[in-house]
Predict the structure.
Amino acid sequence: MTSPATPLTQDQMKAQVGFAALDYVSRGEIVGVGTGSTVNKFIDALATIKDEIKGAVSSSVASSERLRAAGIPVFDSNEVEELSVYIDGADEIDHRGHMIKGGGAALTREKIVAAQSRRFVCIADASKLVTTLGDFPLPVEVIPMAARRIIRQFARLGGEAQVREKDGLPLVTDNGQHIIDVSGLKIIDPRAFEVEVSQWPGVVTVGVFAYQKADVCLLGTPSGVEVLQFD
Ligand code: 5RP
């Protein structure tokens, strides 16, 4: 009797979607690269075809360092007008491709690189797929002097926000700003929510990606990669 195939671990699922994303990379071009543990698997996979691409535009110092260590040239986003594809992870993704991002504090640069890309391919394990965004505490990058007022504004929406810390001090992003994480939100209309919060003075970037949503999601499941296409 043969034993059933062992379900993949979360790490293996991340590696699978990272590898599967190579199918979406246009050879001879510059690719947009996100941030996080799933993207790290993608960078490892990208290293195997590094001679077939021109390089990458990266969304964080951490990803840039990993790309360079893998021998992949990193371009500044200002050097490139448009990218054909941006590949990045998500903290949550809904069935329309809207996402919460910023668990790795890179949301501002992620939104910028996503905005200059024709296609967003999200790579995520199955735990990230949700019906409604908001169980994952929403990251918001803020100008430090506005943090307390923005926290009070979220309280009026029913959210409980706190400044993200590292080693007992406010975490400082690659852009020199702070992150607040907001729990207790149910984001029913991600586009309206993104527009509203983006206008609050002192908000640099809200971690709802509704305007820069995913076109495709490669979802790692215990039995393999599922491809979700969004309109
Ligand atoms: C970083 C992000 C990441 O894409 C998100 O946090 C997912 O990370 P991981 O792949 O490690 O689960 O938005 O700012």
